[in-house]
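Ticket #529: bound-state structure for J2J.
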Amino acid sequence: MLAGAQPWPPEFAARYRAEGYWTGETLADLARGWARRDGARIAVVSGDRRVGYAELDRRADELAAGLAELGLRPGDRAIVQLPNTVAFVEVALALFRLGVVPVFALPAHRALEIGCFAELTGARAYFGPAEHGGFDYRTLAGEVSANAPDLEFVVTDGDPGAYRRLADISAPPRPLPSPRGEDVAFLLLSGGTTDVPKLIPRTHDDYACQLRACAEVLSAGENSVYLAALPAGHNAALGCPGVLGTLRAGGRVVLSPTPSPDDALPLIEAEGVTLTTLMPALLPVWFELAPLFGADLKKVLLEVGGAALRPELAREMTDAGCRITHWFGMAEGVLCCTRPGAPAATVATTQGTPLFAADELLVVDDDGNAVVPGEEGELLYRGPCTLRGYYRADAHNTRSFTPDGFFRTGDLVRLTPRGELQVTGRIKDIVNRGGEKVGAQELEALLERHPGVAAAAVVAEPDPVLGERIRAFVVPAATPPKLEELRTFLHEQGAAAYKLPDRLDVVAGLPMTGAHKTDKKRLLREARP
Ligand code: J2J
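RESOLUTION: The complex was predicted; output attached.
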């Protein structure tokens, strides 16, 4: 296994194999079977491009061979920051086949985050677009490379400038050693960390298992048309069943460059979309604007999760004939959902039941003891897809897992008498801004780099549109800084735009708890409305 990743204990691995969760299937074989069976069948649609299974399979082999020729080796890491384009799919498949471990970054990440991934993983390659959303990723790659001695190859989809052009990397397919089921297939970014980003190793065994199970519960198959509107590198769009699960099932993946209604909604009618994944903040916008784009949302199974879904909105949409499955997901491999056809009340008020019969859930109090059934507590999770340790994060892992391997989700939940999950809050210090997760500690540390800030505290403030927004409290060191000044400063530090505070309060001091931490509850209680 990849050094720095934590395998499951042998007795659990044996059990998951014996029970059929882990089958040795690897992601290296995605698209191959369909390419042989029905090569002309369309696998991926992106803008004007329609790529068949045979073409995709061939390109993945040629790209893998080309990358091997450049010198990339199994076990190397490669940052993949491609938007939802054919290149994303080609590169992901090629790296799986080569045994190089993609680190899936989001298009919204900037030099700060990408630099962090490069340092943590020692990535040898970076794959990005030339430009996307008005931003030049070659400049970003240049900034990151300057401080990342391991980063040898920058590969660009589009005009490469000083770098390598993705389309030019190709060599005659050659036999490559197949990865094994237990090998790490890729690294995903955690949405749950309060300080510097953490990465989650996902193995071929566990992810193939997730793809199969998600496709099964949603009856996704060869006739499915999956619309990836959220970034393809996020677990929700990548593999629930998402882009990879749809390719596995022989369906069609339709890629939207962004989730904005003008990009995504026209694709629904044009491509006959049957399934898509959305964060709750997008739902009302899509619901309202769908008719303008001739999109009939009733024809699409909507997978909704990532942040709290307002029950009234869920009800309004199901009353209007929309089909929603409500998900509680984590890139760490925790997945619960309401099954299609569940009663409207279940969909509106619960996140359903665990994906796997082998998933073990505990709901515990502050002392780690199981709560009385039906009471609120922290959700602990152990199962065939749930990680046993973050990548290269020993100290953090000691806190994030119980001694017997349960993952501490940091989310507060209660279980209904039928065993359905209800997310009630969280203990981890993050802001869930419309589904994008911002670690409070990471942002506080960045704010405290500003010369005008002596101390900072970041809290989640309820927001009618995003669910939560970022409110920063700062104690000034000199002249009190203004919100715009701090946002510009963070931007210049290379932070992603979704991490910039929405609101600023300048305060004389921060209240402390007995444990010398900022008392954020009191801070909010005493703050101006
Ligand atoms: C409240 N909070 C939720 C929900 C996730 C499918 C769907 C979502 C994600 C995802 C994902 C929530 N209500 N229904 O990976 O495969 C918050 C929790 C959780 C964190 C995980 C998927 N569903 N959340 O959002 O790794 O706080 O995954 O711990 O980005 O989102 O974030 P992330």
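RESOLUTION NOTES: Residues 111 and 494 are 5 Å apart (CA to CA).
TICKET STATUS: resolved
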